[in-house]
Design goal:
The protein is α/β, with parallel strands linked by helices. The chain has helices at residues 7-10, 42-51, 70-82, 95-102, 106-112, 128-136, 155-166, 170-187, and strands at 12-14, 59-65, 87-93, 114-117, 194-196, 206-207, 211-212, 217-218, 224-225. β7 and β8 form a beta hairpin.
């Protein structure tokens, strides 16, 4: 997956859990799929298939946008699944409608038989709430433009989200988001591929360059330029 997304330099680091390293609550030791080993676990995957009553695999559909890095990433996922008998058909669709009505509409997801859906995600602001809340809060599932793609509605997760939002101590809130992250990984409803990297080139002529704490990135509206 890392290679399909551009490699370690251009694509990003292999993800071990849902919360990226720059989000408070990230636990570098949380690696339930043993991704740090860098080796496919074919035998383990077959054990899991047998445990769920599908020892020889099954057929499914992977939804993906028809643009950007996703087609090649979906092809890499398709090839990996084939190794354990899971036959996945790719369904590439219009990128402009993808998040609103393709994977963002639960009725369409069910009608198309999507078992897996490709998606990239970045927090509007670098906190556990900004990153995880909209993805896993069961009360935010909507008929269109839905971002809880897995339609996860876990009562414990929902309750912990409320506690994290009410916490006034940032460390306490981060600890709760870490708990939520672990539960989500235990549910195995989302599988992170990479912590993507983005390169922003800073021209030496730019002035008033600073990182805004709210967004965790350059404040583009405040940039100036020398003559």
């Amino acid at each position: 997956m890392q290679t399909a997304r551009g490699g370690a330099d251009a694509g990003g680091d292999i993800a071990t859990n849902m919360l990226p390293p720059n989000i408070a609550g990230h636990d570098p030791a949380l690696d339930p799929y043993n991704t740090k080993s860098g080796k496919p676990q074919i035998d383990k995957a077959k054990e899991e298939l047998a445990a769920c009553g599908k020892p020889t695999g099954f057929d499914t559909v992977i939804a993906t946008r028809n643009a950007g890095k996703e087609p090649k990433t979906a092809e890499a996922l398709q090839a990996a699944l084939k190794n354990v008998g899971i036959n996945a058909r790719l369904d590439p669709t219009d990128a402009s409608l993808y998040f609103r009505s393709t994977i963002g509409a639960p009725s369409n997801v069910h009608a198309k038989g999507y078992g897996l859906m490709m998606a990239g995600w970045g927090a509007d602001f670098p906190t556990g709430y900004g990153f995880l809340s909209i993805l896993v809060d069961g009360r935010s599932i909507s008929a269109s433009g839905n971002n809880n793609y897995a339609e996860l509605d876990n009562a414990e997760v929902n309750s912990l989200i409320d506690k994290a939002k009410a916490a006034t101590d940032p460390k306490a809130a981060a600890d709760i988001w870490g708990q939520i992250n672990k539960i989500v990984m235990d549910e195995a409803v989302m599988v992170p591929f990479t912590y993507d990297k983005a390169l922003n080139y800073r021209n030496p002529r730019l002035t008033n360059v600073f990182v805004t704490e709210y967004y965790g990135m350059y404040d583009f509206a405040s940039l100036g330029v020398t003559s």
